[in-house]
């Protein structure tokens, strides 16, 4: 999800505020801090896709087929309700008026949703998140879990960040995981896990969930923690409506930097997406059991 820069210039074009906006950072990484602000799917949208220069730095990971993912763990999943939130929607770009509507994020007003980012050759974040989410859902159902998705193939746009949070809350979910792809600086690579930064009853369990996701994702995919944001793969946030409005433990995974050539190659690989799904199921198993 490509972020509008909090330390740089925000590009806005009249009539197209949400085209290819999402989570991403367009500024180089400062020294990491525990609560550093990350790219956000909920940030102010840009007007057009950023054409990033090819990355001079390779992804800090193995090639898509170089490593075998550990066996999927499923202990503790049977009977649990898991909500999966695939970041963005592949048709958001056709509904800019709707997704630019301002909603209450629980810590300020934000756009309902954005279109997300994409790789330099056009592979959309929404396509990545949809694929990983469905692979993950299949594995969870096989393990006996009840899976609730925040959108389906017929969802015309969005839903808004407020609706995504409501779905998780009303489902009686044991846990919610939101899947994204970042749009950071081309020279930066790796993943990070956003967790609630505001004080409240879900902060501590969400932190434990974030650690489980970080450790399992790193081991299962071979991708390393982000080199440009967060601290050791964790990034507490106070500005994310999806986290602020949740009443159940929740994290948001930025599964890689789609503007980095190496990360993009991995994320376009079905083999890598399967490993990502398997590692996230294992993370939920470890957390819930």
The ordered H/E elements are EHEEHEHEEHEHEHH
> How do the strands of the widest beta sheet line up side by side?
4-1-5-8-6-7
Beta fraction: 5-15%
Total strand segments: 8
Q: Regarding quaternary structure, how should these chains be classified?
A: single chain
Radius of gyration: 17 Å
Explain what the structure shows:
By secondary structure, the chain is α/β, with parallel strands linked by helices. 28% of the residues lie in helices and 14% in strands. It contains 7 helices and 8 strands. It has helices spanning 96-99, 125-142, 161-170, 203-221, 241-244, 261-267, 270-288, and strands spanning 81-86, 102-104, 109-111, 146-149, 175-182, 192-196, 234-237, 250-257. It has a 6-stranded mixed sheet with strand order 4-1-5-8-6-7, with helices on both faces. The protein has a two-stranded antiparallel ribbon with strand order 2-3. Helix 4 (203-221) links the parallel strand 6 (192-196) and strand 7. The protein is globular, with a radius of gyration of 17 Å.
